[in-house]
Description:
Blueprint: H1 2-7, H2 11-17, H3 21-25, E1 31-35, H4 37-62, H5 66-75, H6 86-91, H7 94-116, H8 120-140, E2 141-145
Parallel strand pairs: 1-2
Helix pairs in contact: 4-5, 5-7, 7-8
Amino acid sequence: MKSKLIKSIPATLLLTLGLSSTTLANADERTPILVEPAELDALLGEMRSFLEAVQSITEGIAKDNMEAVSQAASVMGMRAAQGVPAPLMAKLPLEFKKLGMVTHQAFDEISLSASISDEPIEIVAELSELLLNCTACHASYRFGIQHQGN
Ligand code: HEC
């Protein structure tokens, strides 16, 4: 899929952009984290929950419903970080785990702020900070399938 897409970019455009096809082929420099299929499902499921929480938080802010913001944020707080099985924990790089923890903590902080502040713009600023964890991790890592017996 990906290589087809790259081939379909006209060479002239690549030249305009100052890129060679070699640069593009090596563009994905994210560190792969190899996990089993069931672990991948769990990890990606958590990711989708992160995005759902961000959606609910922004909706709550738009509707000026800070209670809903606080509730939505608390769902992805530290309590959501519990229960990662030890074998999966062992496969996750330390930096990845740290970023994950900091992200869960930031949701707890938003939950607290929303419960005491009536300044929606403050919550938006906190959410913007929180989202930097998402983008930093996405820029650094990708998941891959570790086949049984590897
Ligand atoms: C500690 C690292 C890390 C953090 C923090 C993180 N992600 Fe991810 N996320 C990943 C990785 C790795 C993938 C898989 C990317 C790949 O394999 O191409 C992913 C994938 C996703 C996906 C795709 C899910 C699917 O079903 O394919 C979504 C959506 C997502 N993340 C949302 C978020 C949001 C929103 C946040 C922040 C609130 C967040 N993530 C924080 C590492 C992280």
